[in-house]
Amino acid sequence: MNAIGSLWLLFFLSGTLINGYCSNVTSRPDIVNVGAIFTFASTIGRVAKVAIQEAVKDVNSDPNILRGTKLHVIMQNSNCSGFLGMVEALRFMETDIVAIIGPQSSVVAHIISHVANELHVPLLSFAATDPTLSSLQFPFFVRTTHSDLYQMTAIAEIIGYYGWKEVIAIFVDDDYGRNGVSALNDKLAERRCKISYKGGIHPGSVNRGDIMGLLVKVAMMQSRIIILHVNPDIGYKVFSVAQYLGLMGNGFVWMATDWLSSVLDSAVRLPSEIMDTMQGVLVLRQHTPDSERRKSFFSRWNKINGGSLGLHAYGLYAYDSVWLVAHAIDAFFNQGGLISFSNDSRLISAEGGNLHLEAMGIFDDGGLLLRNILQSNFVGLTGPFKFNPDGSLFLPAYDIINVIGTGYRQIGYWSNYSGLSTKLPEILYTMPPNRSTTSQQLYTVIWPGGTLSIPRGWVFPNNGKQLRVGVPRRVSFREFVSQERGTDNFQGFCIDVFIAAINLLPYAVPYIFIPFGNGTKNPSYSELVNMITTGNFDAAVGDIGIVTSRTKIVDFTQPYASSGLVVVAPFEKLHTGAWAFLRPLSRQMWIVTSCFFLFVGIVVWILEHRINDDFRGSPKKQIITILWFSLSTFFFSHRENTASNLGRMVLLIWLFVVLIVNSSYTASLTSILTVQQLDSPIKGIESLKKSDEPIGYQVGSFAEQYLSEELGISKSRLKPLESPEEYAAALELGPHKGGVVAIVDERPYVELFLSSQCSFRVVGQEFTKDGWGFAFPRESPLAIDTSTAILALSERGDLQRIHDKWLKQSSCMLENAGIELDQLHLQSYGGLFFVCGTACFIALFIYFLPITHKYCVISPDSASNNQQQEGSSRSGRLKKFLSLMDEKKEHSQGESKRRKMEELMDEKKEQSHGENKRRKMERSLSENSSKDGETEVMASIDRKRSCSFTSVNH
């Protein structure tokens, strides 16, 4: 039966509702009646009762509020029963109750909220924390404490702070427990965490055996993070049984919601046997700022109770709730509100009925009082007291405490403003909000078992079950994974890596290998991974590629072997031949380089022609000079001097280009003539995509899916191959004889294949980057620990030793031959040619600038002459411009002096050469001629020398 049905049933059962009335009171009556419903004997109720009584005294003694009107609170005991709570709420309706404080129970609040909505009486609960008690469904329900939504957010952030992924939730199975755990699950999901097991406990009396049965199940789980969201009576029993079962020792983490902090604060001293059962537990407590008023009330509290009852946060909120009602009623009267009630026509019994509901009065101005409550803003014992637009209290925050010895210690705070911090929330409110990872801090925790080390948060479950590990039954490349014939054992590179990693884990992991596949062909690895998601396997071990489609459904470990798709193709050896010297440069490179030789020669000739005699002469001589000069720069043997600065600049840049090209050409030609070269018509994956010839792939590999779906290659071109032998046969046959043009496979398989097949090579570059890893279910902590173990194997060198054991390369893999001839291509030298060409054009522009200016200056005279002689024809202007270009430029004084010095040096060289020649002739004549002959010859030589000196002096 729903709450509305229960309400109508109570109307029939209640005999107290037969006296109908309609009351109207003056705007400021002498007494205002307010109801209070809670459980007097509970942990919260004992403190709340005293706190409400003291709050009423303080309100009535304060002349600044209510101004002569006394506040009268009528308390009723609900005994945590929804039925009794509704009865007591209906009894309030017999009198002019304007508001109800309470209840403390979320279950009771759900029922009474229906009554409050119908009769327009605000319901102020200081302890009902169920997040589903919404102001949308129950507009007259006002929560004067913080919702469990914030408490569960704090717990989720603590879980994320310590890096845990799975938790176990133990809760009381009512609205309070179920809805609180549901909120926790949502907040954990936002941080990619989850509740792996939920254990509900009956909200009534529960025996020790039921709790023991629940905790035995918990002990069988792999998670060691336990969230306890119950009431105090159940909580005591849970901790006691947990200690008995050994669940309060090392490795466990217990977190209790604020029910435990209420117990710790209200009890002056708990028995040692109770405290011993909760050592190391983390507890949340609603944060209330420290203030002088709060300290004063605590001192007064100790005097009232004689130190026998402590004050917890819910007591403070109960106290402030009374003040909240008082402030709202005072504002209500100031606005002219009247305390008046009227009958609801819907509640009048039908004719002939015996149920009299006239006493059920509706608070006429209840909406006005509700608005004043939600708009209240004052400072209470719990700090600033005001509401957000959604009806929740302003700035929720929690203390995080750690139960130690006979008490507890504060390890930090959580606020909805800045998350986890060791600073007071009041300090953080004065700063900009900061949710960065580095700002989240907590002090050191002493965990269950007395350890300071942060627990890992999970263990492999000790439930007698073994980890079911799926292993592919390969029929080829058995060095990676293979099943020993006649046994259930597996061996290979992947198996050895897995066993070594498991042995490094700090806990025992019992496992069993389960073969996957029929043993006649390689199985589909995608199907193997899918078997994990269906629960058939707990893990998958083998040469499993980590690809995007698989990472969406499972978690992989750290890669233990690098991989990626490569292309394998046959090759042929290239012989050097007579024209090998042409191979270092590509065709484009030869053409562009030749053109630049000619172009630079022409540019230098233009820049030097007017001032340098080396570049002047007949047309035939000038053409020969251009060709000789440009080609001789390749060997740096040009003999023509450059006289202009522009010519020297162009020549300098060109010689640098020639140096780079020359060096590269020499190195490439040396490699061609000394190293054996290989060639293949397939250059890589791009040439495969452009062709229409068949391509081979390994059965079971993801290469087929990648080639067809990612690269768009037709499936009709893809040919499945089983073994290395089929690889070799298909490549040797070729595409025209039923074979394939190339094979696409993962690098580890290719390396193993090529270690025994020296007729094939990898062509092109690796066009995917991935690796091999072990697969586990999503969010599996075993995947993280195994990844750590794989990294440890790599750092210690064990991973390489396992690789060398199974996959040692042969001499075929160690050859330094390359598939593709490394020619010098134009794109590699485009920058050099661009710089050189730009320099040439800039030099020509600067060179022609004065010539053009001179032509423009003399063009009018030329035009008048041409009118008489040539009729101003275009050919005449062109001839004039060319004549200016060909005109020899007069040397400056410095240039003339330099030219004279050069001529003088040349004459001295000729004189020295003639003297040496004369001496040789003298020695020859002295040996072979007569004395008369000598005289004649000497005279002849003297005449020649005299002529020579005369020429020099001239």
Characterize the structure shown.
By secondary structure, this protein is α/β, with parallel strands linked by helices. 45% of the residues lie in helices and 15% in strands. The protein contains 30 helices and 33 strands. The strands form ten sheets. An eight-stranded mixed sheet has the order 7-6-8-9-10-15-16-17, sandwiched between helices. It starts with a helix and ends with a helix. 38% of the residues are buried. The model is unreliable at 1-26, 349-356, 813-821, 866-872, 929-935 and 944-954 (pLDDT under 50).
What is the count of DSSP helices, taking H or I runs of 4+ residues?
A: 30
Beta-strand fraction estimate: 15-25%
User: What's the gyration radius in Å?
Assistant: 50 Å
How many runs of DSSP E, i.e. beta strands?
A: 33
Percent range of helical residues: 40-55%
Low-confidence blocks of residues: 1-26, 349-356, 813-821, 866-872, 929-935, 944-954
